[in-house]
Amino acid sequence: MNFTLKEQDATSARLVVTVQEADYAGLVEKTLKNIRQKANIPGFRPGMVPMGLIKKQYGTAVKAEEINKLLQTKIFEYIKENNIDILGEPLPDEAQQSTLDLAAGADFDFEFRIALAPKFDATLTKEDKIAYYRIEPTDEMIDGQAKAYAQRCGEYKQVDSFEEGDMVKGTIAEIAEGGIEVKDAVMMPSYMKNDEQKALFVGKKVGEVVTFNPNTAYDGNAAELASLLKIEKEKVAEVTSDFNCTISEITRFVASEMNQNVFDAAFGKDAVKSEEEFRARIKEDIAARFEVESDYKLLLDTRAYLMNRVGKLEFAEPILKELMLSNKADENATIDDETFRKSLDELTWHLIKEQLVKNAGIKIDDADILGAAKDATRAQFAQYGMGSVPEELLENYAKEMLKQDKTREMLINRAIDVKLIGVVKEAATLNEESVSVEDFNKKVSEND
To answer: Does 382 lie in the same domain as 330?
Structure first.
């Protein structure tokens, strides 16, 4: 098998592969023998069909299949061994190959069109200056997170008078002869849809009576009214009367005071031992979460910076369009210019990123992927205020995430990005700037 690469221009080439009979004859013979052993042809016992008949019936198809498999293997070996940097896969020249007579011929030339990767240099040095936006946690953020931790350690307490958010228990009775009466009914007036009905409960004390209209309060919601009044949904529409609610209990959820229980629940037993340490740890955690966002913004800005520095790369656009269309299920699919241009932008960044990764010698192993999964899991727990999660639990959740192929691929890319950000921080000059969350979000939106 011989290969001839003919570069047509800087973006494309034509690969001619000469396949000789000696390359595929043995493979074809072996496959035909296997077919003969299994062939079920009337008039012949299994394994006794004449080889001439097998060749006549299956020879051309087997020949085509074996040559095709050989081409797929050997072409990529040739490309790899000769360090030919291509985009996508070689495309067969359909017009040229349609003239080949596989049945009659022995030696064949197969021609393929190849899109060559463009040449460019995306090396980063200290001469390259890229902005890095550091978000400083504010006292309000720290206060909010501290209160959230205190809320999670709070408890329900009996109180004398009603405030917004309290739960009411009592007997509710319809003001009508033979009306509905529900003892020990429980309500959260804050969930009522009608503000005027909610206001009727504000300031009321245990033992007082509140006259309200359930139908109005819950805007006729059949499910909520049926649950409250202990009736069937079908009968809800019939109940439009006012009700008296005799309050027997008022329960309020009260946040915990700042104490060791709150500190331990947030960060683990005795990890912090004072409110000052507690707030410092919260600030540290918020800053760490912000650093992830700052790093992501750095990667976006690095992309924009390098794509601008590298400039518009030249591609073999007809071949790339054909490759993109070949991956679509619909044979009649088309690609509009805007979509194609966006695809070229994504390809440009992919090639730049690939070069940065290669030049930095970035390698990703199972430990890196697991680490990315644990970071993602840790961030999920943090959203629910769980700042201290046992390592064993983190690892178990992370391993479950990695069982999903799409998630695993995403985490591999994330692990690469994390290392790439480290390379950018080390190689380029970062112009650091402290910004507010609002200003940071505005800057992120500029990348969209």
So the answer is: yes
User: CA-CA distance, 271 to 280, in Å (whole number)?
Assistant: 12
Residue 194 lies in a domain: yes
Q: Which distant-in-sequence residues (6+ apart) come within 8 Å of 367 by Cβ?
A: none
CA-closest candidate to residue 229, choices 272, 172, 310? 172
The domain spanning residue 174 has which CATH number?
3.10.50.30
Is 260 inside a domain boundary?
Answer: no
Mean pLDDT by runs of 10 across the 448 residues of the chain is 89 94 93 88 82 89 93 94 93 88 89 95 96 94 93 93 96 94 95 95 97 95 94 92 97 94 91 94 90 94 96 94 82 84 94 95 92 85 68 84 89 93 96 93 86
Q: What's the pTM value of the predicted model, to 2 decimals?
A: 0.72
Q: Which of 113, 105, 114 is nearest to 19 (CA)?
A: 105
Same domain, 89 and 216: no
Q: What is the dihedral of CA 174, 176, 180, 183, to 10 degrees?
A: 50
Residue 146 belongs to some domain of the structure? no
Domain coverage including residue 191? 155-254
* Structural domains counted in the chain: 3
5 torsion bin: left (phi>0), alpha (psi -120 to 50), beta (else) = beta
- 212 assigned to some structural domain: yes
CA–CA separation, 57 and 35 (whole Å): 11
136 and 222 within one domain:
no
Strand extents, DSSP E, 54-154: 86-92, 108-116, 129-135
Q: What is the CATH number of the domain that holds 347?
A: 1.10.3120
β partners of residue 109: 18
Residue 415 CB-density burial (10 A; 0-12 exposed, 13-18 middle, 19+ buried): buried
Tokens linked to 362: 């970035």
Residues 180 and 284 in one domain: no
Between CA 143 and CA 181 the distance in angstroms is 45
